[in-house]
From TrEMBL:
This is THAP-type domain-containing protein. Keywords: DNA-binding, Metal-binding, Zinc, Zinc-finger. It comes from Amblyomma sculptum (Tick). It comes from the Eukaryota. Residues 1-74 form the THAP-type domain. GO terms for molecular function: DNA binding; zinc ion binding. The keyword Amino-acid biosynthesis does not apply. InterPro entries: THAP_Znf, TNP-like_GBD, TNP-like_RNaseH_C, TNP-like_RNaseH_N. Residues 77-112 are annotated as: Disordered. Pfam families: THAP, TNP-like_GBD, TNP-like_RNaseH_C, TNP-like_RNaseH_N.
Length: 987
């Protein structure tokens, strides 16, 4: 049996799959079908050749499947599955070919005479033949003198056209004469001519076909390509012009019948008006049916709306009780949006808005995708910006946050209120920004701790103080500060004491303070009496709130591990076991770095053993360097390491010591927590003793020990961790201490969110930094912890307070300048100095006055104000309006002399003020206080006071925007210049 592969054509393959009745398996591209399933007519088994007129067949050996073959035979299955192909029809016997019979026309019946091949005599052209009747006439053609025409003519209806019904032409050519016969314009063939006179008699005896009718009888036939129109008579295109017995020819008969049928159909079919009327009636009926259907649908919709309205939100809330709070909030927002035609103008829940703000902070691109695809009902970016202004507060400790913490701790037990303060700083971009209230952002602001000499300096660092509990997954930002450089130790110690007092007053229990190993943090330790040496370690100080408690100081452990790693990269460590070299680990990595072979240290890369300045900052690289993988590598390649760098045993012992310490100080789950008399506690004590022995052993080599700051940080951190664990266990009943809660990991995550929210810039501006931190602090306060016995807070009390800037705006808008000046704590008066030499050009002030008028005067809609304060371009001062007219393309506004004088006075005051005073956050408040004696009003009596104050506010805020932008540009140019100078020194 032969097997045939499935066809490659997908259409034919689909036919095969449908033809084969198999449900367990479908034909695939590599399947085959046996020849038993094909009819024999589709299988070719021989080669056929014709030799000497005979068919010769040669066996193929391998059968061939003919095109179009489909499996139809299934012998081992029920017979109804096999399909019988139709038998081929027997071909009819073919008769021998013969010439087709000649067709006879009406003209042939009248003239069955064969064509005479002999030419006529030329005398025919000059003889006058006997005419058959008086209707005949003889004509000699002017264009061809050797052609003589005998014809029977008739006139058209309008008697302007002459038609030749019968025409006989005798033409002389080369001494012989030929004849042509035309009847109704159709040349008649096979008309023999023995005698010209008899020919005329025969033509006269021919009957002319009357045609199919007239155009008056069938007016719709006009333009039909299948008819021939002769005057008003209609004939078929195939009409020969002659007929028998005076009846129409067969072609005209058929044409007339068709025309009659067509006319009958047109008579039976409705006219255009009737057809349109019928169509309108049908459309009206359809419209009535649709109206009824729409009415029913409207009733159904109204009924469903009424039923939906009856379903109160409380019922829906009962059904959503099983959902978590965040999911319940999302579903409620979706339900609220579903009841609206559009989400434009929709009022969102405050808690949901805060969730949306945090989501967009963490991933702006994912937020836009969820909003664009309609996965959740999320507010737009502009909506978030409007609501984010509500979370804007100043630097320092926010009283609303402290109040919210106190309200929250009332529902918490004392066990869950214990924790510590995490302190750290991040770099900010120097940038000035003017908020809507006119306050300048981007300057040094430490709250009430701000020094008077630092108020005009730009900030470049942001300090955050966060509370991290020992249990639970929540965190809370307590304060945020903007400084120039790092906060010095004396001021930092005051801020930390204030943070401890406020946290304790709010119900939190501060047991420790964690900071990194920066020099100013070590100086802060010394102010609190914290020290750590080989002879004496003091990790705590008396608590400022409760003398019976201790306040412990911890150095960020991951930062200490990085310091240990960086010291090993610089030089060897001279430990009691021997010298520790980074080259031992590098040699193991070189032996293990082949990409093709199996690896002993798969996570160790070149960045671990030879990191650059950026890679040295990564904590995971330092932790990987002191991991079990490095221990396995040192053991596996110890022979190769010995040959190059000596015995790696001291290095292996040091890595093992650090790995155990990291495991003890980064416990994240209860089973690994630090407990009294545990293995982790014993190892921490061993490390403290090891540091003392190591320091004594390394005294002979100054480079063989840790730096003083790192050694002190390790001693204080390890001893403080042990003492804190004992205090929590003995005094508070803690079973274990999760040592990971003593690090700055939560604050580093917060910094990552802040940098990501600021876009590609790793250093946000002060305004971005403050706004992001405030939103996150509000979020931490109102959200419910995932574990614990307290609920989330309420957001309303956090947004109810108003700052002095908002109050100042209200006073300005109300025209109460004297009351506005009372808000300013200290008003600076201009001294009796000379006016600055450089002032703004009056033409630019005139241009600016027109812009102020567009933004303030036109909004009032008062015609009297517009007539007093605005003039036409022709009436404006030519010298002042020169620049405005040059820029005018048809839409600029020209202020009057009164408005120009008012704006010019404001501009002069602004330039004089900032010529003699440094820019501060409240500079606009101080400037407004100097304008309290200015009682000039503009406009009509009704709008004068309010309009004047609006112009003052708008101009001063806008002018302050221009001023800060110019300062930012100068600062950016200076930074770029310094950058190029650094590059020049490097190259």
């Amino acid at each position: 049996l032969s097997l045939f592969g499935v066809p490659k054509d997908q259409v034919v393959l689909a036919q095969w799959r449908r033809a084969i009745p198999r449900a367990d398996k479908e034909l695939e591209e590599n399947s085959a079908v046996c020849e038993l399933h094909f009819d024999e007519r589709y299988i070719s088994r021989h080669f056929e050749h014709i030799v000497n007129g005979e068919i010769v067949r040669i066996d193929r050996g391998r059968p061939l499947l003919l095109p179009g073959a489909v499996p139809t035979q299934f012998p081992n299955l029920p017979h109804y599955l096999s399909k019988k192909l139709p038998t081929s029809r027997k071909r009819p016997a073919r008769t021998p070919l013969s010439a087709p019979p000649s067709k006879k026309s009406a003209g042939d019946e009248l003239s069955p005479v064969s064509v005479e091949t002999e030419s006529l005599s030329s005398s025919v052209l000059f003889e006058d033949l006997a005419l058959p009747s008086a209707a005949w006439g003889k004509h000699t053609l002017s264009v061809s003198p050797l052609t003589v025409a005998y014809s029977v003519c008739r006139t058209a209806v309008d008697k302007r056209i002459l038609f030749a019904e019968k025409l006989v032409l005798f033409s002389g050519q080369g001494g012989s004469v030929t004849h042509d016969v035309f009847v109704k314009g159709v040349q008649q063939k096979n008309v023999a001519c023995e005698d010209p006179a008899s020919l005329l008699e025969r033509v006269d005896a021919m009957s002319i076909c009357p045609g199919a009718g007239t155009i008056h009888e069938f007016p719709f036939a006009l333009g039909n390509k299948k008819i021939v129109l002769s005057d008003t008579a209609i004939s078929s295109q195939k009409c020969q012009g002659i007929t028998t017995e005076g009846k129409p020819c067969i072609q005209c008969k058929h044409l007339r019948k068709a025309l009659l049928n067509q006319r009958s159909r047109k008579r039976c079919s409705p006219t255009g008006v009737a057809r349109t009327s019928k169509r309108r009636r049908a459309q009206a009926q359809a419209t009535r049916r649709l109206k009824v259907k729409v009415a029913l649908c409207t009733q159904t919709i109204e009924k469903l709306k009424s039923q939906s309205a009856e379903l109160e939100e409380g019922v829906l809330a009962d059904r959503l009780k099983t959902l978590p709070p965040k999911q319940r909030l999302a579903v409620m927002q979706c339900y609220q949006a579903a009841r609206r035609k559009s989400t434009k103008g929709m009022h969102y829940n405050q808690d949901w808005l805060l969730e949306c703000i945090i989501m967009r902070m963490k991933s702006p691109r994912l937020y836009e995708h969820i909003r664009r695809e309609g996965i959740l009902i999320l507010p737009s970016r502009s909506c978030l910006k409007v609501h984010m202004r509500k979370y804007r507060s100043g630097f320092g400790f926010n009283p609303a946050i402290i109040t919210g913490i106190a309200k929250r701790t009332k529902s918490m037990d004392a066990f869950k209120c214990h924790g510590g303060l995490i302190v750290d700083e991040m770099k900010l971009t120097e940038c000035l920004n003017v908020c809507t209230g006119g306050k300048v952002e981007g300057l040094v602001d430490l709250g009430k701790f701000t020094l008077e000499n630092d108020r005009h300096l730009l900030c470049d660092h942001g300090l955050i103080i966060m509370f991290q509990p020992l249990t639970g997954s929540w965190h809370q930002i307590l304060g945020v500060f903007a400084s120039r450089g790092n906060v010095k130790a004396p001021l930092l110690s005051k801020i930390l004491i204030e943070a401890v007092l406020l946290a304790e007053k709010a119900g939190l229990k501060v047991d420790y303070i964690t900071a990194d190993g920066a020099s100013w943090n070590r100086s802060m330790w010394r102010l609190f009496g914290i020290s750590g040496s080989s002879t004496f370690i003091k990790p705590s100080t008396p608590h400022p709130v409760d003398a019976a408690r201790r306040l412990f100081f911890i150095s960020d452990f991951p930062h200490l591990v990085k310091c240990v790693r960086n010291g090993l990269l610089k030089a060897r460590y001279k430990t009691p076991e021997g010298s520790v070299y980074i080259e031992h680990i590098r040699a193991a990595h070189n032996e293990d770095k082949c990409a093709l072979t199996l690896k002993v240290m798969p996570k160790i890369t070149a960045a671990h053993v030879n990191p650059n300045n950026f890679e040295k900052m990564k904590v995971n690289f330092a932790f990987h360097l002191f991991s079990p993988q490095v221990l396995r590598g040192l053991f596996f390649y110890q022979k190769q390491i010995k040959e190059q760098w000596g015995d790696p045993a001291p290095t292996e012992a040091f890595v093992l010591l650090m790995w155990k310490l990291i495991k003890a100080m980064t416990a994240r789950i209860p089973s690994e927590g630090l407990k009294p008399d545990s293995t982790a506690e014993k190892h921490i004590k061993d490390v403290l003793n090891y540091l003392n022995r190591w320091e004594v052993h390394a005294k002979t080599s100054p480079a063989g020990f840790l730096s003083a700051s790192t050694a002190e940080g390790l001693r204080v951190t390890l001893q403080g961790t042990l003492d804190l664990m004992r205090y929590l266990h003995e005094k508070l009943g803690f079973k274990y201490l999760l040592t990971c809660r003593l690090s700055q990991d939560c604050l580093e995550k917060l910094f990552g969110i802040i940098r990501q929210f600021s876009g590609c810039n790793d250093h946000p501006t002060a305004a971005q930094f403050l706004l992001t931190v405030n939103c996150l602090s509000f979020y931490d306060l109102v959200k419910a912890p995932s574990s614990g016995n307290c609920e989330g807070g309420d957001l309303k009390f956090l947004l109810s307070s108003e700052d002095s800037n908002q109050e100042l705006d209200a006073l300005l808008e109300g025209g109460k300048i004297e009351e506005a000046s009372q808000i300013v704590k200290k008003s600076l008066k201009l001294s009796d100095h000379e006016y600055p030499e450089k002032m703004s050009d009056s033409r630019l002030v005139f241009f600016m006055a027109g812009y102020v008028a567009r933004k303030t005067i036109l909004k009032t809609g008062c015609k009297e104000c517009s007539d007093k304060l605005l003039v036409s371009a022709d009436d404006a001062n030519e010298q002042l309006a020169m620049f405005t007219k040059f820029c005018d393309n048809g839409g600029l506004i020209y202020p009057s002399e009164e408005l120009f004088a008012f704006v010019d006075a404001l501009e002069t005051t602004f330039t004089m003020w900032f010529s003699y005073n440094e820019l501060r956050s409240d500079s606009l408040d101080e400037l407004v206080s100097c304008l309290q004696n200015n009682n000039v009003t503009l406009g009509c009596a009704q709008h004068g006071p309010s309009l004047s104050n609006q112009i003052k506010k708008f101009f001063l805020v806008t002018r302050l925007h221009f001023y800060t932008k110019a300062l930012n540009k100068e600062r950016a140019s200076s930074r770029e210049k310094k950058k190029h100078l650094k590059l020049r020194r490097v190259t």
